[in-house]
Protein 1
Amino acid sequence: MRCAVLGDPVAHSLSPVLHRTAYELLGLDWTYDAVRVPSGGLGDFLAGVGAGVGAGVGAGGWRGLSLTMPLKREVLPLVAERSADVDLAGGANTVVVDGGRLRLDNTDLPGAAAAVRERWDGEVEVVTILGAGATAASTGLALCDLGAREVRLLARSPERAAETARAVAAHASGPRVTVGGLDDDPVHGDVVVSTIPVAAQTPSLVRRCEAVPVTFEVLYDPWPTPLAAAAVAEGRVLVGGLDLLVHQAVLQVEIFTGRPGPLAAMRAAGQAALDARVALP
């Protein structure tokens, strides 16, 4: 069977390393590749995998797809069948191919909660999220699952944060959600989540995050980011992008194969690949 991660850019993705490791240890003769699919191209790609040739198999042997930016929200009008987490987050990172049917799921949400709890067992009541895209929605909802009652979204264009603010506010706990500017608004709380690119992590922003005990950096390439490096240097708790990637990938493996993903082995493979990149001149 065939699986892949789709997005643009996607060449940097460690998902192939994680999934291939899992399939090998599970004794499955499956493939998993990175496929560049730019914005606007997902519909044509899905049309080519959805024509089923057998139970659980799409055209060409396709079984599952991982989605990264910019496709997590673009997929929503293309596939009707979806999990409750997809509707809650307003985005999907997983497409399951089952014969002629496609269905969506979101493993970012439970993956983010698991990643935080692995590194931090303290209270999560107030959260600041840098950025306001699909990943900000998933991580915000995950932190509400862990107890957050106040979520602050800081965006470069606050007016574009409305969709994410609505998604987080719809959590069953009824959190208070506010929106501010990324350039100068204060950062406070128990956890600061960064979903923004390295170029936006200015020295001023890094300094504004110093008082928050836990930094959750969703990026893993390039690594370390300015926010991640500062958290380590100052002895604060760091939840890294690899943590999130591994936990959501373990859940994807289980969805695709019906068998639990080998967390420790997948993490070790991902860390080795990441270390090799960092070591390059």
Protein 2
Amino acid sequence: MSEPTPSPRPVEQGRGGERLPLPPMDQLNAEQRAAAQALIDGPRKAVYGPFVPLLRTPALLDRVAQLGEALRFGGTLDARVRELAICVAAREVGNQFEWVMHRPLAEAAGVAAAALEAVRVAARPEGLKADEQVAVDVATELLQRNGLADATYALAVETFGEAGVVELSTLVGYFVMVSWVMNVARTPSRPTADVTPLPSWPL
């Protein structure tokens, strides 16, 4: 299995501040208002995170939101596995928002706090449950090597099944995608006193 390597630090706190903030509601066109209302009426209950910059393209926002809902609220992976994989993706691409949001969810789902701290500092987590370790190895290998070695793939199929491997791979890709959108937009994370953020550096 691959060892974690130092990953990019968060970039959303860069010089110049947020590039694509939430527009005033009275400046939204009909399509943007409809997309925003769909988020408010759905499981997210608000417009935040990647959907702030994505509001510039409401048709794309709708499709991205639907995929995210399918993965987060309609997926088959155990919440421990899902949230841990999201944390690995957030750390690997240096996105503070997703880290701050999903790190508490991972711990609430049963992932050990010490393991999450290891993920935060790009160290190999110890003491994970078997399926959690496979999820970390799959996410890390995908993110660092753009694919899976035969041994990693075989163990992933044994652990999650073929459908589960497809779902896990899609989950990692989804959160990399929305993290990249926020990294470009410099979307700030939610302030919190309860989550130690990823190490950051100003751009």
Protein 3
Amino acid sequence: MIDFDLYEAKELYPFQESTVISILNELRENGNSFNLLYQLPTGGGKTVIFSELTKRYIQEWNKKVLVLTHRIELSIQTSKQLDTRGVQSKIINSEVKSLPDQDEYLCFIAMVETLHNRLNENNQFLQNIGLVIVDEAHYNSFRKLFQFFDGCNILGVTATPLSSNKALPLRDNYNKLVVGESISGLIEKGYLADGKTYTYDVNLQGLKIGTHGDFTVNSMDSVYGNFFMQEKLVFAYEEIAKDEKILIFNAGIETSRKVEETFKKLKYNIKHLDSTFSDRDRKEIVKWFKETPNAILTSVGILTTGFDEPSVQTIILNRATRSLTLYHQMIGRGSRRLPKKSDFKIIDLGNNVRRFGFWQDYINWHDAFRFPDRFLESRVSELEDLQFEVEYEFPRHFKDILNVEKLQSFSIADAYYFAIDNGSKGRISIDQSMENHAEVIAEKAADMDEAMKLIKLLQDHIEHRLKHYSKCISKCTPNYIKYLIETYNRQLSQKLRSIIDNDF
């Protein structure tokens, strides 16, 4: 069997070798200023691939390579992997203010913010760069650096070619997507462990969607921190994975701390880890986890990337997410294969499998890259009616601008079903929603200009309500929702103009 903890690896596996060749061919055929995005599942060895690619690129093009990462741990791992390929690299961290020795290196590894600061101070900070490799390319923080590398080739690598911000699709920055081996293909060929999924139905009422599009941490702490959810977690652990090495992913620190406390009371071997820990404490806990056979590590947002421990036997998703990328990142932490590990377990306590399908399922990544809005909308609407499970959470500053309580007091779904039950048309719920929005806006708007600004401010909330309505009538195509929103905004503006004009 194959182990992907590859710091000692000398030869590429066949699919990795063919990937390096095909990417180099793309660069030869398309020339400078051509940006390529490469997709490969977590566990497929993308660091190995782009490290070998770096070596061959330097040899053929006689130009330097820059690798961009978003975490220092990834920078260190990349540097070690490049060393095994015979490429000496320099890490540009916060302590590196200048590069008087840059002629001594053919490869640099940098974190986004640090390099952005240096290039703003001196756009000649790095010279003779021919290829920029972007690790975890789905993050949008990298975009601001692209302006400094006109004329270079940019290669983005990611397990999920979906932008972390749906308003900024990856196709805007990359000319072409190359799709690597599928998860099922890597399992079949013995490169990844197979995942056995166990699901438990969870009532997600009480969850709220934030402005970033995913469920809010506060609302998940409320749902997952309660006694009944803690009981369900312990039950799932004892039924499916007792005495195995386990990673538990939570949304909030409060929940993870409660998980640690609950399991400790039952005498289970568990530790908590989150991003507030010092480097020293984190290293100690990770070392303990690696060396302890039945260790349970409950974590928050810190082990989804840049963490590889092949001995993990079970992944527990003690959270819900609307991010397909995060879903794959979390499960991927258990997919490393060992001589005595051909499969691992996935325990889903967030209805995530209903939302996204099984981890091994085929995904048309070309469709996701070309039409990300359609891709995400279709998956959510087909797999689960998320909009009915959650409330809309207003950004905190809205309370200083509008009467949020009055907005929260109205439910368009409740209004729809009340109308139907009483023999009225469900469409009346839209009129009632509009009245609610108009009243709240009119209370604060001194004139029509201010009213229009407040309508614009409430667009996410308006869209959220109208998606509720579209679900009620089982007509939720993107075009219909777009029509609803446009009509709603027009009529709301007319209503406000009438109210404000009459007030004067």
